[in-house]
Structures are given as structure tokens and as C-alpha cells.
Amino acid sequence: MSLLSKTVLRSLANTAQALTSRIYISSSGEGAAQKYLLLLFLMNHYVPVRCQDCTPIMANLDKFIKFDNMGTTYYTSKAHYSDAVQSAAMCKSICGHLSEIEDKKEEELVHALLKRLNYGGVLIEGTNKYDKSKWESERTLKKINYVNWCRGEPNNHLKNENCLTYMKNWACMWDIPCVYDYRAFDIHYLCEVKNT
Ligand SMILES: [Ca+2]
Ligand SMILES: [Ca+2]
Predict the structure, then answer these.
(1) Which residues surround ligand 2, an ion (CB under 5 A)?
(2) Which residues are in the C-type lectin domain (predicted)?
(3) 144 CA → ligand 2 middle, Å
């Protein structure tokens, strides 16, 4: 749903609330009852739009570097990656999720972003911890259709490499542990938020 239509619906719901209180004061009888029922319908139908909204934790937004691109905002963590569950929770706290690189074009965008920030890499969405034979999104539990493994990857080198990272210098993906101190490789984590 577009931002405009959400705004319009919120405005309608607010108007309905305001009108309802006036009708109680100024009207009576069947006509007023019909109007009231109509307004109740509008309110019940549109007010839940508000409940679907997400309010980012403002203090957490400061922990990222923001980049807008074509309806999606990417947030690269200033802190190093150390724990995939914590990283995903941080993304959620700003109303997003770990970035899902869905095609070559998006991969190139992420690579350019890493070059600009001069970061070594970023944790992105993807795990094989549920089924070693496939990589899937932790968020949707669907198979990841796009991967660009670096040469020799995925190699499960440390025997628990069940998470996914995109590396700047090689311009491709590694499997890495879901909990690890990756400061030596300068790995951060990347969230994305779809702008509605
Ligand atoms: Ca994406
Ligand atoms: Ca690996």
C-alpha cells in the first residue's frame, strides 16, 4: 500500500472519529443511526491500517549508515557482525530485516555500498541450519534463489558455517558461523527496509 493511500485512509478514520462525536451531540433518530453505522464501518475497516505500521526504535537508527535506493532503504551497521540472531533483531527494531540479495543488480548495489563504506563484508539473510542441503531465508523459510558463492565456498570451514555473508574484496558470498567475532574481516551486517 502506498504512503499516499495510507495517509488518506488515516485521514478518513480520523474524520470518522471526529464526525461520530459530533453526531451524538447534534443529531437524533434513524438518519443519525445510519450515519453512525456507516462511520463505525469506516473506522473498523480502516483503523487496523495503523496497527500494521511499525515504529522504528529511533536510538537504533543511529547505529546504522543509511542508503536509499529505488524504494528500498539499506542500513549498514556501524558495529561489527558477531551474532546473526542479534543482527536480525536489530534490523527488526528499525522495521526491516536482514538484506536479501535477490539478483545480480542488487548484488552490484551492495558491492558498491561496501566499496563506498570501505567495509570488508556484510552478513545478509540466508541460512542452511535447518537443512544442510539448501540455503533458505530465516525470515520467510523459503529457498534462496540467488547466490554467488566465492570460489571454494560454501566450504563449512569452521564446521558451523550456517550463515551467509557478502564479501567486498572477492565480490561474492561466503558461508560463515552464525556467531563469531569477525572484526578481523571487518564484517558488518546489512538490513533493508521497503518503503511503503
Ligand atoms: Ca533485497
Ligand atoms: Ca565458508
Answers:
(1) 155, 157, 161, 174-175
(2) 69-175
(3) 17
